[in-house]
Task: inverse folding
């Protein structure tokens, strides 16, 4: 008898909780392979549904009542770890899940692992550290997922991943995902006779339009400002090659009165998390970033990708552009060139030339949303519903005045209509949330 998702659990309930109508072809193929404990390699771009492709069969393989970590997921970044944790929680399975990553207090993670989750997701360095500390017993792990494996290798995590795999002596299922094809898998993955599942035309964004704009001199900054005015309120990512360039462009845009966020590896974890939160909840529609944001982040509905600095390789070009025109949506990629720069040969077909209008005469549009910080989070046992009720009833907001709510361990953030912020802060000042003192203010990076 073939084992399928529907024969084991109510898939409709889970998909409904996630806001998904049905599984795509890749997810169905992955389920059939993984549930029968076949080593599986998923080659598919960001946004194609790889996370659900391995979480659904993983859920079916978790044994209720069994102690210890049963499924271990290794990811290249803390943001991806948090994203996977949030998706699994949203599935409402009843099984415990935790994430481990650099910048998160080790003590908090050790306490969480004292009662091991059924599913543990983390970055290579932090997971290796916990194995050395014996924070959890690797003998209970039967399923391993190496998510965004090519990115982990690119970031230099080979030794840590090899140590982790060698520590897992009772594995019977291995899943490896990658956004790019791999001719040969490293021996340490122990992926014997894997099934390869590839999304057709994985490197092609059918709804993507590609353009280039050439400056009349060596300065692209004015060109960028004009293009941002052209994009208006639509969500936009501006890619630079180095964090110094991100900071420089940020200063330039600040002087031009263009609200934005920045994202790069030199920021503290809290700064990076808040930048993404403000971007997701539309407090600002513009994010200046390095290639750190080209993969593994849950940043939906990007309309414009701007290559302020030329991508170094075809892979970088593909991954940057993969942030837009996802899942059959449309999007635009823009390449900015100085008078002496040329389009690299790997950009095929070549982007079309675009002529911008003259310098903008109007101000850059301000977002109607602002992000509010609350000093209570998941560990304080407050839910999204608790926060919404507090802001609506105590703060005097209407439902249309409240946007997305994000909870971290010890803090929460809510998008509130900018024109209602002063009224809200006055209404909740000195009030308690679930009988707990709570500090509420505008979130600042």
Result:
């Amino acid at each position: 008898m073939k084992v399928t998702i529907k024969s084991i659990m109510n898939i409709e309930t889970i998909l409904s909780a996630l806001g998904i109508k049905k599984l795509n072809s890749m997810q169905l193929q992955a389920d059939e392979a993984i549930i029968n404990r076949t080593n599986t390699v998923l080659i598919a771009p960001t946004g194609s549904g790889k996370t659900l492709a391995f979480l659904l069969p993983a859920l079916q393989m978790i044994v209720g009542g069994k102690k210890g970590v049963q499924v271990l997921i290794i990811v290249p970044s803390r943001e991806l770890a948090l994203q996977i944790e949030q998706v699994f929680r949203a599935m409402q399975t009843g099984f415990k899940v935790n994430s481990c990553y650099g910048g998160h207090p080790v003590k908090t993670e050790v306490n969480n692992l004292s009662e091991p989750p059924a599913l543990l997701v983390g970055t290579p360095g932090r997971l290796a550290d916990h194995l050395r500390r014996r924070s959890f017993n690797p003998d209970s792990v039967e399923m391993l997922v190496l998510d965004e494996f090519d990115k982990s290798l690119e970031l230099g995590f080979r030794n840590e991943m090899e140590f982790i795999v060698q520590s897992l002596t009772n594995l019977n299922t291995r899943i490896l995902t990658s956004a790019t094809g791999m001719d040969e898998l490293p021996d340490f993955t122990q992926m014997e006779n894997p099934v390869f599942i590839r999304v057709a035309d994985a490197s092609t964004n059918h709804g993507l339009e590609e353009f280039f704009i050439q400056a009349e001199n060596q300065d692209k900054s004015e060109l960028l400002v004009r293009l941002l005015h052209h994009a208006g309120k639509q969500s936009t990512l501006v890619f630079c090659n180095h964090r110094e360039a991100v900071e420089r462009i940020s200063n330039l845009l600040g002087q031009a009165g263009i609200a934005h966020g920045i994202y790069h590896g030199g920021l503290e974890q809290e700064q990076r998390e808040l930048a993404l939160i403000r971007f997701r909840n539309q407090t600002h529609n513009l994010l200046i970033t390095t290639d750190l944001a080209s993969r593994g982040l849950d940043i939906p509905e990007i309309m414009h990708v701007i290559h302020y600095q030329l991508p170094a390789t075809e892979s970088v070009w593909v991954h940057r552009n993969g942030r837009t025109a996802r899942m059959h949506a449309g999007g635009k990629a823009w390449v900015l060139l100085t008078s002496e720069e040329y389009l690299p040969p790997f950009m095929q077909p070549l982007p079309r030339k675009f002529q911008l209008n003259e310098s903008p005469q109007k101000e850059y549009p301000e977002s109607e949303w602002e992000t509010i910080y609350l000093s209570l989070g998941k560990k304080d046992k407050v839910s999204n519903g608790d926060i919404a009720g507090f802001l609506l009833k105590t703060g005097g907001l209407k439902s249309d005045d409240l946007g997305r709510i994000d909870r971290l361990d010890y803090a929460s953030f809510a998008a509130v209509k900018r024109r209602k912020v002063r009224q809200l802060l006055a209404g909740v000042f000195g009030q308690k949330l679930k009988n707990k003192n709570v500090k509420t203010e505008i979130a600042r990076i």
